[in-house]
Design brief:
By secondary structure, the chain is of the alpha+beta class. It is built from 8 helices and 5 strands. A 3-stranded antiparallel sheet has the order 1-2-5. The protein has a two-stranded antiparallel ribbon with strand order 3-4. The N and C termini lie far apart (about 55 Å).
């Protein structure tokens, strides 16, 4: 375990800026990783996934509908993203997530939200291509869309679900 005095405020701030996690969470992750930023990032990511799993059963009755129209107005997407409270639905983190999901849908053309939906249609396509939650995130392909949602859940402290989406392409 790292000596607390060797964890500088600048290192904590840098980790916080990169992850959006709380100051104490960042400091603890750095302490638990012996000030190794890569290990601290992984610890925070795992913690975010655990938080998301705990909140998964909570009711999501609020949210927003986000739309995206691609340049040239040939492709568009709409997505309904739900959360627990109206307050969170209007935070910048939640709105950014909804916008990024609309971009993802426009760019990657998923057919289903999850494998549960795909399995109900007896599809035989690659789930990583057809299921939104399993697709590599277009802004950071080291993460899946599901992991990006889990990170946002950890930041805002509420359950988040993609309820439905539609993608439109001129002529299709």
């Amino acid at each position: 375990m790292q000596d607390r005095s060797r964890i500088s405020p600048a290192l904590v701030k840098a980790l916080r800026d990169e992850t959006g996690a709380g100051i104490l969470d960042c400091k603890q992750a750095l302490l638990n990783s012996d000030a190794d930023v890569k290990k601290a990032l992984e610890l925070l990511r795992q913690r975010g996934l655990a938080i998301a799993e705990k909140k998964a059963s909570r009711v999501v009755g609020q949210g927003i509908i986000e739309a995206y129209i691609h340049h040239g107005e040939q492709i568009g997407a709409m997505v309904e993203v739900n959360c627990e409270t109206d307050f969170v639905a209007h935070t910048s983190e939640f709105r950014e997530l909804a916008h990024n999901l609309a971009l993802q849908i426009a760019a990657m053309s998923p057919k289903f939200i999850s494998t549960d939906e795909e399995n109900s249609t007896e599809g035989e396509e690659d789930p990583q291509q057809t299921c939104l939650l399993l697709q590599p995130f277009i802004k950071d392909d080291s993460k899946t869309v599901k992991e990006v949602i889990a990170e946002t859940i950890a930041k805002v402290g509420e359950n988040i679900k993609v309820r439905r989406f539609a993608r439109f392409e001129l002529g299709n």
